[in-house]
Amino acid sequence: MTDDDPPSDGDSGELRTVRRRPFALDLTRPLGTARGDIDRREGFVVTVDPAGNGSEAVGVGEATPLPGWTESYEDCGAELDAVGHGDGSDALRAESTPAARHGVSLALADAAAREAGRSLAERLANEADVGASPADAVPVNATVGDGSAAETAAAAAQAVDEGFDCLKLKVGARDVEGDVERVRAVREAVGDAVSLRADANGAWDREAARCALDALAAFDLAYVEQPLPVDDLDGLAALRGEARGGAVPVAADESVAARGIDAVLEADAADAVVLKPMALGGPDRALAAALRARSAGVDPVVTTTVDAVVARTAAVHVAAAIPEVSPCGLATGTLLDEDLAPDPCPIDDGRMAVPTGPGLAGGAFDDLRRE
Ligand SMILES: O=C(O)CCC(=O)c1ccccc1C(=O)O
Ligand SMILES: [Mg+2]
């Protein structure tokens, strides 16, 4: 990492100092998706010092944009620089620069939670009026990228050996028959007790999606994620009822990030919604979307955008604040070849531990907070 702080306003008597420091992390191997490979993540560690005195309550956040999902790296950095002269996340535009808002709002929430001696999950749940104590562990799925049927089945079997009982397979990067063979191979390899999801990342048109869901109905999928392009909410709503009488539930992911949770719920477009704090503008916004989905009878699932450890840990706190959350796509740390700090959320038997705090993870990110 190199130092690239924006000019500090600490001397001018401003309430807050916001700093950003760039990082770049390679994936161990590319994650194959219908929208291309993800092979490297570049972003910013964000720190805020609400008291302006370098006290214990300096908060840390992370802004790791993923073009297609969020603003560009350049726009994210520019927005963080701008807010470094302003007064925090309220000034940040969640719609146009969600990753920047994520970084700052997370750092502020971490600082506030530390100050109060609570975990981030406790603070988020309290601010959102959840009315239940956060979980101390959350169920997670393993994420399996595109590959041949044999490669996919081998990766799936390995994940099950490691204790996962829910797997998410990337589909849509090859033709529908190829994906059906992959899902068949996985189901044969892991047996009936393992929950399977498939994520098409918007690859199919309506006809291909109907074919795919008809063929995939034989394999007892928990859901197919984003089978249609982001804007086709009516298509998603229709697909839910069509395929073998609705045998394959539908989840919306890109559609939530692009159109907003309210539009997706209003259109009856999904049985489940995939919520990425980095794409939605922050942990607070992701939790709010999850609670709205819940009250509409739609199942919320929290995932990362293959973020570094700070944002990943924040997403774990978001998931922990959702009562009885379904398996979440948070087990993405092992996709990275290196990380900003050791991971404070060990996975055991398909469940990820939620750090007790204060803030994100007690002293686990002290080096990042103080650098
Ligand atoms: O949900 C998971 O298992 C991991 C996260 C994931 O798949 C993902 C990661 C980066 C960008 C997009 C996506 C996605 O869900 O489509
Ligand atoms: Mg997805």
From TrEMBL:
Signal peptide: none annotated. The active site is at K170 (proton donor), K276 (proton acceptor). Residues 1-12 have a biased composition (Acidic residues). It comes from the Archaea. Its EC number is 4.2.1.113. Residues 1-24, 51-70, 350-371 are annotated as: Disordered. GO terms for biological process: menaquinone biosynthetic process. Residues 149-246 form the Mandelate racemase/muconate lactonizing enzyme C-terminal domain. This is o-succinylbenzoate synthase. It comes from Halorubrum miltondacostae. The gene is menC.
